[in-house]
Specification:
- The structure holds 2 protein chains of 2 kinds.
- The termini of chain A are far apart.
- Chain A has 10 helices and no strands.
- Chain A has 2 domains: 1-92, Orthogonal Bundle (Rna Polymerase Sigma Factor, Chain: A), CATH 1.10.1740.10; 94-168, Orthogonal Bundle (Arc Repressor Mutant, subunit A).
- The radius of gyration of chain A is 18 Å and the shape is globular.
- Chain A is mainly alpha-helical.
- By secondary structure, chain B is an all-alpha fold.
- Chain B has 8 helices and no strands.
- Chain B has helices at residues 3-16, 22-30, 34-56, 65-116, 119-125, 133-137, 151-184, 198-231.
- The chains are: A mainly alpha, B mainly alpha.
């Protein structure tokens, strides 16, 4: 498929987009916490991936390469966002503890948005993208030991946040 | 199981996404160390919430794959365009500065030509070239009727003035064209500028003008010379 993409075959490029767009969008959504921003960045990521596909090292896995672009673009989008107001979806503080199961995802996302950017990326790549520690390290360009450290810090901070928000074994009893 | 073993095995279970052994749960719930109980509590909390997090939010991408592919094609084109777009701005700026420089040098050249021309002092100072007031005020048709000045003398004076003016203009034009040529041409010792092909095109554009100017001047000189020969 990559070879056909490089030859400019449109159907192969559509196939490429179909193969990765859900994963990239899910990562961007969890990283950015804003659907419209995630759509924009996803498009940007896929466009860049197609454009620079020839620079992909075929001896490596394709998915981490694409996700690496996504992580970098999310980082760029977040740094640009720091110069303008937060999107509404992230700036709204919940008034009351949530009790419904549907609200858990939203609450976890809020907790994630409060994490340090690299901790959040590490957490999302590991749990949501189901990458191994080695793959996360490759995507984030850091040693595997750093990934483990960031992952456990992210888990700890998120658990503390969720507990504060009324979620947890002692609150469910 | 001691606390260190508990922490190591729990870490492995998390990283390898495996279910923890029963003795891990037992240690985590019953250990007297607060750290172990906190670790186990966090583990239970997250293992319970994260599956809901993954299912809870729809992450279906609404992008149209075909539009993404088209955007990629356009992007690669516009990428080239961006690289091109930088150059004209630089070139325009350089062209503007060079035009100012050329104009300035041309003015200086004209002034220098005027000051250094051997004909100009002659024109100003030579009593031979100065026209009698009667000639200077005459209309072309009235020259024959002027009292006190012969037709031959007037003709000769006019011819000399023509020679002087033509020589002056010719010299100035030559100075300007040489100055422009000097400014626009690259000295052989310098490396040619890689992104300034308009130098050559500008020189090529100027060359016909210079040649036609030269021809015109030569024609005028020949004409004036022929007339003076005929009149003499």
């Amino acid at each position: 498929m990559v070879q056909r993409c490089l030859e400019g075959e449109e159907s192969a490029q559509v196939e490429f987009v179909n193969l990765f767009q859900q994963r990239v969008f899910a990562l961007c959504l969890r990283m950015l916490g804003h659907r419209q921003d995630a759509e924009d960045v996803t498009q940007d990521v896929l466009v860049r991936a197609l454009r620079y596909l020839k620079s992909w090292d075929s001896s490596r896995e394709l998915a981490p390469w694409v996700l690496k672009i996504a992580a970098n673009r999310c980082r760029t989008a977040l740094s640009q966002r720091s110069t303008r107001p937060l999107p509404v979806e992230l700036s709204v503080e919940p008034e009351t503890p949530i009790s419904e199961v549907e609200g858990v995802a939203e609450e976890v996302n809020r907790g994630l948005s409060g994490l340090r950017e690299d901790h959040r990326a590490c957490f999302v790549l590991f749990y949501q993208q189901e990458l191994s520690v080695a793959e996360v390290a490759e995507v984030m360009d850091v040693p595997a030991g750093t990934v483990k450290t960031w992952l456990f810090r992210a888990r700890k901070e998120l658990a503390d946040y969720l507990r504060k928000r009324g979620l947890g074994p002692e609150n469910e009893q | 199981m001691n606390c260190l073993e508990f922490q190591t095995q729990l870490e492995s279970a998390i990283l390898e996404r495996t279910s923890p052994a029963p003795e891990l749960a037992e240690h985590g719930c019953t250990c007297s160390a607060q750290d172990c109980r906190d670790l186990w509590s966090d583990y239970i909390l997250l293992e319970g919430q994260l599956p809901l997090w993954l299912e809870g939010e729809s992450a279906d991408s609404p992008l149209d794959p075909l539009r993404v592919v088209q955007a990629a094609a356009e992007s690669s084109l516009s990428g080239r365009h961006v690289r091109r777009r930088v150059r004209p701005e630089t070139r325009q700026s350089m062209r503007r500065w060079l035009a100012v420089a050329v104009a300035g040098v041309a003015v200086v050249g004209v002034i220098a030509a005027l000051n250094t021309s051997p004909d100009l002092p002659q024109l100003v100072q030579s009593p031979d070239v100065r026209l009698p007031p009667e000639v200077a005020l005459l209309e072309p048709g009235d020259t024959a009727a002027s009292p006190g000045v012969s037709t031959e003398e007037s003709q000769q004076a006019l011819t000399e003035i023509s020679h002087t003016y033509v020589g002056w203009i010719h010299g100035s034009a030559h100075q300007i064209s040489e100055t422009v040529g000097f400014v626009l041409s690259t000295p052989p010792s310098m490396d040619p500028l890689p992104v300034l092909p308009w130098y050559d095109t500008l020189q090529e554009q100027i060359r016909p003008i210079e040649e036609s100017f030269q021809k015109t001047m030569d024609g005028v000189l020949q004409e004036v010379g022929g007339e003076s020969q005929r009149s003499s």
